[in-house]
Amino acid sequence: MGKLKITFLGTGTSQGIPLINCDCPVCISDDPKNKRLRTSITIQNGQTTILVDTTPDLRQQLLRNPVKKIDAVLFTHSHADHIFGIDDLRRFNFIYKKRLEVFANEETLNRLNYLFDYAFGDGELLPGLPNLHANRIKGKFKINNLKIEPLDLFHGGQSVLGFRIERFAYCTDVNKIPEKTFPNLKNLDILVLDALRETPHPTHFSLEEAIEQAEKIGAKITYFIHMSHKIDHNKHSANLPENMYFAFDGLQIEV
């Protein structure tokens, strides 16, 4: 199947880093690894490109990290920082003259259809709008040559999805991994996992919790994402276990 190329379009929490009107050491830092757009990735293999989530920063992200096309969009859940860039998908409709395939669980699709009812359908393309075709995730599925395995996770009380492709798994916005999901996280080369801050949070793993979960999963390499301004890239990197790292905007890895 060939290697997967993962590009981290954004690695920050819902407010982005720097925060508006914040003069904390991370927000005023000159380190580019402390500048974080909202969390999203692209996954590429050969001629296939998958976008995971459409953040409010999507236009900026794709100008920084261009892709020729998008074959499908996967949504992890329906919070604003993961969906509110959806209108910027219309550029790909304009270029390729077809609807873009969107995949999500039932709860997320219902929310997307409520908020962006103008974007979904099966008929001819409507100019000036995103033109999307909804696909409900019920189990494993394929996008071209890529086999996608949904991973059931919890983000506070909300059921959300992570995704596994071959030996790569992506788990953002999570504070609990159900026991039934751990078998689906075995034998990973790369794990990407939520790690918001050092102190506990009701809907995200703290750094300590993320490290504990990463050790339990046992991937060869783990990258942490969705960091707040309470995480300083260099300072906190010094205390990470071996083979665990903070991702940063623009980072590209191969699996």
What features would you describe in this structure?
Helices cover about 15% and strands about 30% of the residues. The protein has about 260 residues and is of the alpha/beta class. It has one domain: Ribonuclease Z/Hydroxyacylglutathione hydrolase-like (Metallo-beta-lactamase, Chain A, 4-Layer Sandwich). The strands form two sheets. It has a seven-stranded mixed β-sheet. It has a seven-stranded mixed β-sheet with strand order 7-8-9-10-11-12-13, covered by helices on one side. The mean pLDDT is about 95.
Query: How large is the share of residues in beta strands?
Result: 25-35%
Give helix % range.
10-25%
Residue stretches low in confidence (pLDDT < 50, at least 5 long) are none
What is the overall shape? globular
CATH architecture annotation name? 4-Layer Sandwich
Radius of gyration: 17 Å
User: How many individual domains?
Assistant: 1
Q: Count every helix, treating DSSP H or I runs of 4 or more residues as helices.
A: 6
- Helix and strand run: EEEHEHHEHEEEEEEHEHEE
